[in-house]
Structures are given as C-alpha cells and as structure tokens.
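Supplementary material to the annual report.
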Amino acid sequence: MSFRNYKDKVDEGDTVILYLSNNLYAIDVKTEVKNKKGETIENVFQTPFGALKVRNLIGIQYGSRIELSKGWGHILQPTPEMWSLTLPHRTQIIYTPDISMILFQLDLVPGCVVIEAGTGSGSLTHALIRRVRPEGHVYTFDFHEHRSKIAREEFEAHDVADFVTAQHRDIIRDGFSEELNGKADAVFLDLPSPWLGISHAVKAIKEQGGRFCSFSPCIEQVQRTCLVLQENGFQDINTMEILQRELKVTKRTIPVRDLSFLKHKSSESPVEEKPSGDTSYVVAARPVSTPGHTGFLTVATLPPAFARSKAKKTKTEDSEDTDTSNVTHGDR
Amino acid sequence: MSFRNYKDKVDEGDTVILYLSNNLYAIDVKTEVKNKKGETIENVFQTPFGALKVRNLIGIQYGSRIELSKGWGHILQPTPEMWSLTLPHRTQIIYTPDISMILFQLDLVPGCVVIEAGTGSGSLTHALIRRVRPEGHVYTFDFHEHRSKIAREEFEAHDVADFVTAQHRDIIRDGFSEELNGKADAVFLDLPSPWLGISHAVKAIKEQGGRFCSFSPCIEQVQRTCLVLQENGFQDINTMEILQRELKVTKRTIPVRDLSFLKHKSSESPVEEKPSGDTSYVVAARPVSTPGHTGFLTVATLPPAFARSKAKKTKTEDSEDTDTSNVTHGDR
Amino acid sequence: MLTGKVSKMSDNMIKIGDYIVIQKQNFKKLHKYNKPNSTITVGRDSINLNGIEGCRYFSTFKMISKSNKKAREYTVELTDEVVNLKDEIEIKLSGSDNRNIVDDGLSQKLTAAEIEDLKNDANRASDIIESLITNSNTFHNKTEFSQEKYLKKKEKKYFEYLQILKPNLRTIAEIMYKLEPGKVQNLRIDTLSQIITTVNIYCEGNHLLYDSGSNGLVAAALLSSIGQNTNGRLVHMHPGNMSQKQALLAMNFPEEQLKRCISVNVYSALRQFYQGCDTNSNENIKEIPITESNQLKRKLVENDNEPRRKIAKPDEEVSEPVIDELKENSNKGDPKIPKWHFDNIYAAQILEKKLDSLVITCKEDPQNIFLELVNFIKPGRPFVIYYNVSEPLQNLYLALKSQSNVAALKLTSNWMRNYQVLPERTRPDVIMNGASGYLLSGYVLK
Amino acid sequence: MLTGKVSKMSDNMIKIGDYIVIQKQNFKKLHKYNKPNSTITVGRDSINLNGIEGCRYFSTFKMISKSNKKAREYTVELTDEVVNLKDEIEIKLSGSDNRNIVDDGLSQKLTAAEIEDLKNDANRASDIIESLITNSNTFHNKTEFSQEKYLKKKEKKYFEYLQILKPNLRTIAEIMYKLEPGKVQNLRIDTLSQIITTVNIYCEGNHLLYDSGSNGLVAAALLSSIGQNTNGRLVHMHPGNMSQKQALLAMNFPEEQLKRCISVNVYSALRQFYQGCDTNSNENIKEIPITESNQLKRKLVENDNEPRRKIAKPDEEVSEPVIDELKENSNKGDPKIPKWHFDNIYAAQILEKKLDSLVITCKEDPQNIFLELVNFIKPGRPFVIYYNVSEPLQNLYLALKSQSNVAALKLTSNWMRNYQVLPERTRPDVIMNGASGYLLSGYVLK
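Predicted assembly:
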C-alpha cells in the first residue's frame, strides 16, 4: 500500500525497499507466507547479510537502519524509480532516464489521461500513475494475457488501481476501445510495430490535440514510425536517445615520480629509484561497462482537430517504405 | 616541402602553420605573390594580430615565436592533423578522430598499398601517405575532375607525390584500374553509395586478403554496405562511430554560502546575507556545442583467397534491400 | 472511470496576459502577450501580433508585409493552410550526382539587386524561390538531395508563417535552454526531467527546492508535476531579495496552483524557523495581526503550536517586483505587512513538519547548502543536487560518503542525442550538446 | 609505381615461435605458439593445437572431441567449410509474436540428463540443436526473431570451429583491452589510434615514449607505425628493471624492427645522459670495450663526440628476462656486459640530439615526468599524455597553461559506439564502454 502516498511508518501490506550495500530489494511486508507444501510459515527474507524477519519491519520508520546478523541495511519507501530497479522482469523494461523523458515529452501533469501499450512489466506504468494522479487516469494494454493479469494484481497490491485500467488487448488489431475515442491527452507505444498503432492513437487523442511517444530499440521501427506520423498530420516530430552514465567517485592516490635528481651526481648513498611520494585526486571515473543503448524515443504533437493538416501521402517512390503491413515483428 | 620529413628550419617553399591564439593558419612560404592585377608583390599574410611578412619566416626554427604588431604567434611544421584543420575545404572532410580509427582499422603500416575513393579535399589522403611511406603507396580516386586535379597539385607542392597517385575516375562505374587487381592491402570508401564499390574492392585486394573501411553519414548506407559485404565473403564486419570531445579546463572560483549562523540569534551587527567566501575547483567543462555525428565507419576483413566463403546470397525476402541500383545519391 | 483534466474552452484561446509561444519553423520564442498589438522580433523581422487575441492556440498566421519587404515589418493574418515549398515548386530535373558542379559563385544569373527587388515585389516565398531556381545554371544538375537541401535553406529564409502555441514545461525548458543555456545553469531537458522523477514529486506532500540560477525553471518543473487542484506544496528557497520566476510565470499556472509555490529568501525563512522572526533587526517588531488569509494558511499546516508570531516590518530595500507580481495573491487585509512575511512564516511551519524531497540547483558550492537543508527532510525521502560541472559534486559525494545520514549516493550525467529521420538520410544530428550538467542523488536516512 | 610490402609466402604460414590469434566466433585470444602440441583454453574447453603448424593463417579448424564431450578436451582438424547453424536447420513455422508464450520453464520436453547425453553422443552441434528444437513446445510459436535469437545463443554454446589469425596491432589491442582493460590502463582502441596520429609518428625520426602501464601496447603501436626497414627509432622508457613488452612481442616484429625500439629504464637512461654513467654506484667502473656491435650503433647517431664511455657492471638484481628475451640481439662479443648498458648509452645519444615526439602513458602523476622529458623534444614537435582519469591531466593542463613552452594544449576524451547492423534490427550495441581515458596534447615551443 506504500506506493500511493508518502507515509512515515511501515504497515503490514506495504511493499518496502531494503537498501543493502548498493543493492535494492523489494519486500512485501507480510508476516506469514505459504511454503511449498502449502503450510503457513513465518516470512523470513534472506539477504546476503543474513536473514530478516519481515514481521520486525512493521511499525519502524521509513529511512530506519535495520540490523542483520552480518551487517545492516536501510528500509525505504518505494518510488516508481526504485520499483523499476527491483520489479520482477516479465519483459525488457524501461528505466528511469527514458521514463523521465517520456513523462516530460508527453506533457503529463496531474489530471491527464494517458494511454500506454504495452504494459510489459509495469515499470513505466507506475511512473505514469504517479504523474497523472489524483484526477487523471492511465489506460494500459498488453497483448499478452498473463502479463496483463499480473500487472492488474500488482496495481491492486500497490493501492494504485484507482488510477489505472490494465487490459488484455491487441491494440494493433483491435484499436483502443471505442470509449477512449477523443479521451487521451497522450499516447505512449512500446510495441514491435508502433507505426501500426498510430491511427489508433489519432482516434484516442482529444479534439484539442495531444502528444505521442514511441519507444523502439531499432532504427527501422523509428523510420517507419516517423513516416506514418507525418502522414497522420503530426507535427514537431523528433527522435532522440537518452543515456545516463554513472560516475564512480573515489579519492585516488597516485605515485609521484621525481626524475630531476638525476641531473646531478648523487651523494654516496644512492637515491632509490622508486616513486618519491604520493599525490591524491578526487576522481570521477567513467564506467568501463555502461548502457550503450536502450531505445529511440520518437515524439510528436497531434494538433487540435481544427489545425490538423489533411493526411498527406508521401511521394510514390517512398511508398515501399511504408507498405509494411506484411512485416512481422516478435517480442523484444 | 615541409610535409615530407621533419626539419628544423623554415625554407622557402615550405607550408608552415601559424598558431595564433588557439587558431591555426596554413601559410605557403613564398616571398612574393601576384596581386589581382597580375603584378608581383611582396607576400604579406594578414592575421587578426597584424600583418606578417612571409619572407621573414625563412630560416627561423620551427617552434619559434614570431612577433606581430598586436601580439605574437608560433610557427609549427604541418602534420596531416594540422593540415586537416587548415586545408581549403572543397568537400566535407574527415577529421583526426575518424582518420585515426580508419588507419588503425585498415591495419596500415609502412609498406602497405591502400586505395581511397573519393579523394575529396585530401584530408585523409595526407594521413594515409604518412602511414604507408616510404615503400607503400596510396591510390586515390575522385569522380570530380577538378577536385582530383587540385589534389594532385597539392601533393606535388607538399613533396609527397612519390607516395600517391591521384586520379579522376568514377570508380563505381569503371572500377579501380586493371593494374590494381590484387595489389591492395586495404580499401577505403567515402562515397554516396559505397556498397556499389565493394565488388571492385574485392578485385583490388591482395590474394592474401586485406581490410576494408567505408565512411558513411547515414544509416541506410551502412545497412546496404553491411549486406553487400556479407554477400562478398567479408568477415568481422563491424560498424562503429567515434566522437572526440574537448574538455575546457579552467580554475573556477565559486561562492560558498554559509547558512549555519542562522541557528543562533546574531549579535547586534547583522550578518550579511551574502556568500561567506569562495572556493575553487579545477574544472573540466564539457562543451555546450560539440560534434554530434561525423559518420559511421564500417570495417571488415576480406580473408585470403583460399579462405573466402562462396558469395552467399541473403534470403529472398531481404533482396529488396539490396536492389539499390536505381537509388541515386548526391554529394555530401 | 474516465475523469481527467476538464479543460475549459477558454483555456484554449489566446488571451491578453497569457504567456504565449511563437513558433516559426523550428524556432520557438516565449512572449508575454500583454496588449493586443504587442510586437515581437523573430530573427530580423518585427511582427505585430494584433489579431491573435481570441484565436485558438495552435492557429497558424501568415506574415503580411506592412509596406515593402525591406522594412521587415509584418502584421499577421489567421490562415488555414501552410504552404510547403516542396509541394509548390515542381522540380523537373535532377542530376545523379554533383560531379559536374563547380562552385564558381557564378551559377545564379540574377544579381543581388534583382533578388532584392524580387523579395520586395513577390507575394509568396515560393514565387521568389521559383525565380531563383529558374535563373540558376546548376540547380537542375544538382542531385535531388542537394535540391532539397537548397529548398530547405531557402524556405528557412523566406518562410512566412507563424504558429501560436500554449507554453508548457517542455516548450519553456527548450526555449530557455536554446536561448542561453548559461541562464538556466546548462540544465538540459533530459537532466531536468530526471530531477522531477528522482525526487518522486507528485500531487501530494511538501517539497523543498533551493534554486539560485535556473530562472524559475526548476520551480516550474516541480510545481507543474505537483499539479492543479492538488495538495502538494513547494517551498522554493532562493538567495537575494527576489526569486527568479520567469519560467514559473510563463507556465500560466492558475492562482490556486501558483500559491502553493512558497517562494522565500533562504536567510529569512531559516531565521524565521530558528529564531521566530525573519529579519535580523530587532527593531520595529510587532505582533502579526491574525488576518483571515494567514489563518487560512496556518490551518493547512496541522498541529501548529509554535509561538512564532513575531515578524518584522518590511525592510525598505526589499524587492517591489515580487510583491507586485503576487500582489493579488497576498493578504489584502493589511497593506502594511508584505506578503513575504507570511510566506516566511508559512515556510517555517512547513519546515517544522519536515518535507518529502529536496532539490538543490545552485550556483554556489552545494555542500553548505545541502548540509543545512537536508535537516528538514524526512527520513527515507529522496534528494537530488544539480550542478553544471562535476567537481563540486565529486567533493560533496566524498564528504557525504564519510557520513552515515544518506544512502544510495549516485553521481550521474546524461548524454542526449537527436536524430534526423528522413528516407535515405537517417543519422544523428551533426551537432550535439555536450553539456548536460551532473546530478548527485540519494536518500535521507534516519 | 606499384611497390608495397613484399610479403614472403612463409609470413603467411603458422610457425612455431609465432604469437597467434585464436578466434572462436567473436572471441579472440592471443597465444604464443611455442611448441607443436601446445594447448589453449577457450571458455571451459581445452584445445590441443597439434597440426596447425605450417597451415596458412586464416585457416579454419574443426574441434574434435578427444574422448567424450564431457571432458571438454579437443584436438583440431583443418577444414574447408564452416557450418552455419541457420543454414543447416530448417525452421518450418514461426509465430507472428510471442503473445502465447508463457515462460513456465516447462517448454523443453527433454530432461537435463537427456540433453547431456545428447551433447556427448551427437557429432555435430546442429544435431544437438535440432533435437532441442524438436522437443520444444514453444519454439515453433516463437517469432522468427526469437527463433534466430535462440539459435544464436545455442550456436554460441555449441559452435565447434576455430580460426587462427596473425596478430597485428588491431587484434592485439582489442584482445588486451577486452581481456582486462585495467592491464592496459583502459587504453581503448580509439584513444590508442589517436595517440599515434596526434604525435605524427611515421617512418622517420626519433620518438620518445614513457610507458608504465600498457603492457607494451603503446610501444607496439608506435613501432608498428614506424615500420619495417625504415629509419625511425623509438626510445621506450620505463620505470623498474624490466620493460613491459607483452604486446611488443606479440606483434612478431622482425629483429631489425624490434631493435629500433630501445627500451631503457628511465633512471638509468637519464643518469647516463646527465652523468655519463648509468648506475648510481661508483664502484667497478671499467672502460667499455669497443665491440663491433656497439660501434655500429654509435654510427647511427652522427656527430657523437661525447666522452660517455664509462658504464658500470650489471647490478645483480637486474632482470634476467629482459636480457634473455633480447639475448640474440645483444653484443655477443663480451658476455660480461649486458645489452642494457649499450641501450642506455644509445638512448642517451639520441636524447642528446633531441627527439621528434613525446608520448607518456603512465600510472604515476604525469606532471614531473612530462616536465622532465619535454626537455628532450625539439621545438615545434607534438606531444601527448594519456591518463585513465581526467583529474591529473586537468592539473597538468593548468600548470602548463601558466608556462609558455607549449602551445595548442587540448584535453580530449572519446566516445565510441558499436552498432548491430541487421535487417530490421539495426541499433547501437546495448552495452558500451564508457571509459576511454583522456589525452592531453600540444606542441613544444622554442
């Protein structure tokens, strides 16, 4: 229940984040769980620093230190950002640097209605919910029935189900539901063939216009999407990529090698041919291995109905590029 | 004549680099020039810091400071790197970060035979010559007759013509000349349609195999090139991008704002509500505006003849991507 | 289920007093539309906006030359259709490459003077360009690509349409950054967007911002995410007498929302908190009359049982503009007590209860400021500090590492790339912005 | 006109004593092929190389299981044809997306034990994988993309071919960096390639390198660009008794070329230069006998009129390996005087005449080392200093800015991105290397 509003203390039913030596773990605060045999047993969470009786978390203040047999950790209240780092992966997920830009580019503020397809593991969905509450709403669709079901259960468990409707639906084939026509401020697509969802997006966006964003790992998807956006009267079409890089800060001591003494004959005792001392720097080292690509974000504005230009077909010689109905794409 | 070997002093006929307050200028050391009327006059080079009588450069040591009426500069002997920064642009040119990687990826060492198309403004050509001399050779082609001629004249003037053959030739249409068959260690293409030059590259590369590199600004060119490389039996096909970023180092003084005094009632005299002091950091600032893209480098190995796999056609459904004979591309 | 923002029709009309965005091709400009016939400058053109009032946002206007085109003075006229040069000008011939083109500066047969006359006489940009093409020796030998490039360039020069957009966080942040990144501490949109998510801003809670260099951009971003008609509040601390609020005002926030951004001088607010009075002078202290408006404010903060009622008379040097800007929101009951006194009290009351997030975007060394303000943040809550170079944050990182009151310290920087996506010409933009600034983030511990 | 490198046929044959590169799919490994039946380890496989001697470089070998496959011991057999899994396995059915696939861990009907048996019994990787597919419930519902991904993964696991390549700078630099970037100071290929061009290395001239952490990679790069049968020379200074030369040796340079890399201890060479003797001890000094070999060396350096002939007896602690490694090149005339004595004299003579470039790739703070060695560089010549983090170079930058003996100071770092180029799946690689190190470059002034 800890996803809804900030709270001071841990209650039963909360999901909490255990921060332990640079790692995050999400823990459901349930005093008891069922074991493999179906028996109800005490809920004990195993950490690298020793076992944690989950019951003991109840009532402690968020931000508190908790002692483990081989060390200690801290209990934090989950945010969508922490959730992205701890959630169970059912698909590839979108992380905070992209999520931040998606929220920004979709012009989302509390009160907006936003459509998302597909739901995936719900990483972005949590961030969308946070941004549009309390009066706005998120409609999220996934063509994978099981995934959609799990997402719904998660939203219930996180006490944010009021703000989100998660449906199993192949929106490429079936479109968003009729009742959404003209209701959305923004549409986000993370689909293998996003360009096939654009006409549905146009239907769903409000008469006063709205924003569109598509997340695609490959450039071919972007190329098709941009063409179809243009044909559908979108303006300000932009494609971008965001990479966040973490810098490792340390105090580094490095040797100093004096060579100047060699200019003069040394005294009887030989000078050691070793570094003559140390100096230290506060260094920010860039990581050897770092995310190199997540996906391209293609964003665009659908103007209000009165200002939409008639859908223009691009010139004939380009048409092969847009005739993509027979291209099949798998899940990423 | 100063492009061939290192020298100590400036001679007449040299090209020298004037380094002036972070700017580089290439100057041909000729004591006299013709003016617009065809009259021979003293050669005076105008700089932002005052006029420079070119005659006075003769005999001075490279690395020397020269005085100008409003300041001073330094005279350096040109390297291919400095030349890239000062040469007259006749086309878009390739700069040192890409040039360095091209030389590296082509496995070039003194003695190699390398083919380049097109010559362009000769930026890369100078670096190729330096790397393969004294026994190697550069063959460079351009379909633009005038450009090819100017390049030839430049190589003569720079005293490196022994190491390079610059020809006007449309190598896509006509291939490299017959006499180059099986002679090259490496082939470099900077052409609007590089994939159309690959079969010619295969012919030109030695029986013992060699390396290939193509520089293209757009991803569509890369996609076609990679497919055709694969069809032609190349291995280790890689596409990469290099961006060099300059960091601006300065000592930056920033204010320190003390707020702790507010915890206590102050004495009669009010404390000023201003920064309480300064601190300074040696900072390396990243530039606001920096090259964001030059081109994609696609590199590959052509194995020795005995180890080349038979040219495999890719599957039929991909063939539309490679049927590109009717695609026209302009100059970049 | 379907609720969402109910937007009034009038919200979509251009009104006097609105901040508006003028878009001409890719160029965007922010403008306060103060009076019906206000004039803006776009490039070298001077454009009178008379007639846009009451039109819908997103409308397109054609620029009409006032007298001759040389003067570059225009009025505007609502239009339905934007003419695309490429659609108007039919190109019959293209070369297959540029091999035969020698750039000798002689390819255009028209003289400069003739072109100038053409510009003054022609009605439409397409007419000018058509003439230029007809009189070019080389245009028809150029490749289709080069021709398009040429048209794009000319279109940019002669494009004669404007669009009026409603500002929002995205457009304001882009415009301010593009105009002069130094004025917003190089705070690029990717980094700005991450500040908002990193500290988990949403419609509830109390959030603390110390900003001394973003011209109100960070406050605008946070308040925008807190939303209209919600309970969230932002305490916006700043040094100096006046907060920078350009971006905040440009958002056209309704009064209700803008009021929940409590802008206070950092010294006054902290003095109010620690000493119960917000000026350093001990003279002229008097009881605050409990007016309706400040009582209302006090009710928002529950359990307020502090006897901090003493506030000083306004210092004569204190900024008029702030007061002016927010005059309507301030207590009309007692004209002698400026609004900022109540703001300081209000802020101190919120500080008392501690806040849910901390954002620092400063020009000063962040260390002192962070160490002071982190005390007001509840345990378990996130913070983020922005600085435009990394070194001060590296220092602070090490200082905080040696303490035990923060967790999950992370220093990050971003890299953002824009793409040109066009058939056969897809590639990253050739110029990118290399300076995104740095974020140091973490969580406050108990 | 057509000259070029004349390569002997024998250069293209795998010989005992060569360093060789073993490539298995994308994995490359460097190996000194010391004896005909030497064994290498690739992943968990142990492979005996018996039989590769005399084969041409670029040949492909099939891995043959020695006994049962569990032991993971292989011999190799020259082969003509590499089998591509995708060409062998015909896939009849693909789903259009993965919507119906639930990953419950139950999709493979074969048990782990059955798969293990299969691996031991099957002759070819394609047989194993065909069985896996046939027994999978979900494979044929997967999309073509997912199927290909699956095959790629399996191919990697069961791929049974090796290729033997001839090492060169590119492969050596890639292998060393990939294996352990820390062992080459994080010197990535883009940065390495720029070191070579920045200091304008070519076949002529004398070049100075101080390297204390690249395992010979920088020396290999510079000597490679100086070339075979040319006049260029590299003075390669290092701290400690022994130079790191792994990469230098792996290049299989001919003796003539390797000799022009004069590797010297920085202290000894500088002492020789300044004091005319290369050890600090004053005992046991004797005249060097003028042997044929050291006279030859002295001739290379013209105008040598310095009376620096005194050298000391070898210090007993001095590394045997260096001497051993280069024994054949050293003066056979007088076994009592180790080669390094002559190298120090030779280096001092070159220093005397000053050099044409300076490269520093050190683990120490670069400032002292640069300030000392820059004195040996001719005016107008380039220098470059590599360091794996920027802060020491920032410091040095400021120090040099305040002096007037260098021009065009520039601190740079690189960013390199690799791409996956495949039909419908073109994108940058999802993991990139963020640490390229930093270069501080400039020109020496008079």
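Confidence is low (pLDDT under 50) at residues 282-333 of chain D.
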